[in-house]
């Protein structure tokens, strides 16, 4: 069994109470910048920027972009003046906060075991910090990123969603090429980790004491215990317990949000030649895949939602959209433009999904191939189509 592990950092891999850490961190940053910004004002807009990141529910902007829009315009200082000060803080001052944390050797043992077993490992820490801060915290945990080949370490520069939004975990999986096999989220927070995993449809392991109580409504497929007990628990389980199920409404919506976000992250800063290269004459290039996703979104997915809403028990055709690749000469399109077109088309679909009520999700239709079908089942096919092409893109990027 190859398991995809999404590991939280604070109070999971690293002994770190954020209720103690955050006030000291903010005070230290305010002190660093007090010659340029009043600490009270800096703290106010730091909090507003953080709240904007937590509230973000769109793949259009990264968390960093959301934060910057709430933070920098509030000061009478140019950003190119403030950025070097902040960078110096993370390089020189932030490391001094290590005393507020404590390494968990058993967490290092678990990570080393996971890599030795060929498991795929991501650090799914809440991406409200810049990467520089997260890198320091990994070192405090004894998990220096140059030593341990984590596939993803989420940070605010590259991610669009944060916990407890289930789209966050979907984005992590997207950045990993959305592995097809079993998945396990490991974390200590019932809301940010466990409920989010439950809403995405993946199994979870709760880092908790024996007397800890789950909040009402949180009942994910999980084990519980210390990080040092996790290996034994995994080895004792039937592989079936880790099989994800992405068919719930919350999972479908989360995936629909996360796919464009993950694609933006995977395809950013590609050279022009990479868009048009194909690993085999019969395989699509990146620009052909993205153009296909864009046009299917515009001309198939969104219209089908409207068909379900406007007709009683509609007939849903099985459209052959593969022929569009040659008919529409996708190979000649601009890759970045095609990606922007897909993101904008998906935003329209997400707006439509927001307006659906519970009855709408269960509206019935007749599919040309699958027979009787509900709107929810149709939307499940939409995001599975996304995942198939995301894996195709990831495979090409990784050579």
Description:
The chain is of the alpha/beta class. The chain folds into two domains: 1-246, Rossmann fold (3-Layer(aba) Sandwich); 269-397, dinb family like domain (Four Helix Bundle (Hemerythrin (Met), subunit A), Up-down Bundle). Helices cover 52% and strands 10% of the residues. A six-stranded parallel β-sheet has the order 5-4-1-6-7-8, sandwiched between helices. Strand 4, helix 6 (131-140) and strand 5 form a beta-alpha-beta unit. The relative contact order is 0.11.
In short:
By secondary structure, the protein is α/β, with parallel strands linked by helices.
The largest sheet is:
6 strands, parallel
Helix content: 40-55%
Show unreliable segments.
none
Which architecture name of the largest domain does CATH use? 3-Layer(aba) Sandwich
Number of helices: 16
Note the run of SSEs as H and E.
EEHHHHEHEHEHEHEEHHHHEHHHEEH
Q: What is the β-strand count?
A: 11
Structurally, the number of domains stands at 2
Broad CATH class of the largest domain: Alpha Beta
The Rg value, from CA coordinates, equals: 22 Å
Provide mean pLDDT, rounded.
94
Distance between the first and last residues' Cα: 23 Å
The general outline is globular
Topology of helices and strands:
Layout: E1 4-7, E2 14-16, H1 18-32, H2 39-55, H3 63-71, H4 79-93, E3 101-103, H5 105-116, E4 120-123, H6 131-140, E5 152-153, H7 166-175, E6 183-187, H8 190-200, E7 203-207, E8 222-225, H9 230-236, H10 249-267, H11 272-276, H12 286-310, E9 315-316, H13 324-327, H14 335-354, H15 358-361, E10 364-367, E11 371-374, H16 375-397
Parallel strand pairs: 1-4, 1-6, 4-5, 6-7, 7-8, 9-10
Antiparallel strand pairs: 2-3, 10-11
